[in-house]
Amino acid sequence: AKPPKPTIYPPPKPASVRESLGIGGVLLNAKVHMYTDRDIPVPGIYVVNTGIFMPTAEWVAGTTRVKVVQILNGMASVPSNLVSVSVGLSRPSLDRPPNPAMGNQTLNITGVETGDVTLRMFTEADALVAGSFTGSGATRVFTPTERWRGGTTVVSVVQTLGGVSSDPSLSVSVRVKPFKPYISLPPNPSSSTQSLEITGVANGDVTLQMSNAADGVVAGSFTGSDSKRTFTPTANWAAGITRVKVVQTVDGMHSDPSGPVSVPVKPSRPSIAEPPKPALGNQTLKISGVVSAVVSLQMYTAANAPVAGSFTGNGDTRIFYPAVNW
Question: Residue 158: which residues within 8 A CB-CB, separation 6 or more?
Fold first, then answer.
């Protein structure tokens, strides 16, 4: 008669690479043979007095399903039920990408197990990062499906084999410059309180900074949401032309400055004090309301013909001296 079907006691999960298996229901003098679920022999030693099967080689990472048969007097039992020996995988490693990284930055992964292994990339919020893994052996390259967002994305990778997953790799940061924003051209001339429209603003916790051509900060407020903002200056724009640019910052990563735009503001109209009547032939003229900037003054006749002469003074007042007598 056939010997009874033996039993393999389930090992712990995860199992060690040298995990021994307890076998029950083995008859005296019976020989014990272990096989995988694909009927491949598992070399090892069965210790009769302890009922323990010790494999000769280490279990491979992942899950190996095994069964056992006892043979007595040339008669083999029915195989035991299958049990799984699930050995934990070593966690893979991610190489640090350059800083700053490209929008389509690939990531190199090492320490990948052999076999039919599956890799998955996650953010620090455990969100799956869509992409593809290429390569073979212990190395893979991850290519994201979409561009990395501007700012910092912290990621880790997990490998799974035979239904057993590794611990996540140590995380790395993919730091990408945000796209440079864009300032719409203001009207020409602009008002001294002219607001500026900005597009191409990144999603998330973004900070915007307006600067002039000399990289001086232009004080003001940004309002709006999504990809659009409106900049309103704290102080009036100076008369003349002010060239400005804007930078956006996400997670400490600064974009390149936007293309510069000019805010052209008409100077206020100056005033000429009435000269005496009659006036001298070389009568000077007093001018007030001159703007406080690098300003040029030009005197004209009623027919818009230039009047040659020179201007002296400073602040908001000048004196005009005609080059020839009136």
Answer: 91, 92, 119, 120, 122, 165, 166, 167, 168, 169
